[in-house]
Amino acid sequence: MDTTPQPRTTTAFYVQAIASFGISLTAVAAGILYLPVGTWIRAFLAVGLLYVVTSAFTLAKCVRDMQDAGTVVRRVDQARLDKLLADHDPFKVPAG
């Protein structure tokens, strides 16, 4: 039986991830804002930045969903195995 505990993410990791995302997004946005180019180029880069950010969120969600689906399948398989083992009585005389 596989009874390995699921790793838990700490609050410090969440804070670090949020801070890293905020700092990087702010730095790139400031770089685009202060870039010595025309408005159209700056707007294009800003839309590109937004596209990258939304794509990263979508990718992270897909990876998380796939991992969660695997966890659910493992839990169902484990529950079935536990039920089979609980119902099995090696000393029971077969009927018939």
Structure write-up:
It contains two helices and no strands. It has helices spanning 11-33, 39-87. α1 (11-33) packs antiparallel against α2 (39-87). It is rod-shaped. It starts with 10 loop residues before the first helix and ends in a 9-residue tail after the last helix. The mean pLDDT is 84.
Sheet having the most strands: none
Q: Runs with pLDDT <50, length 5+?
A: none
* Share of helical residues: over 70%
- Class inferred from helices and paired strands: mainly alpha
* N-to-C CA distance: 33 Å
Range of strand content = under 5%
Order of helices and strands: HH
From the spread of the alpha carbons, the general shape counts as: rod-shaped
What's the number of extended β-strand segments? Answer: 0
Rg, Cα atoms, Å: 25 Å
Number of helical stretches of at least 4 residues: 2
Average pLDDT metric: 84
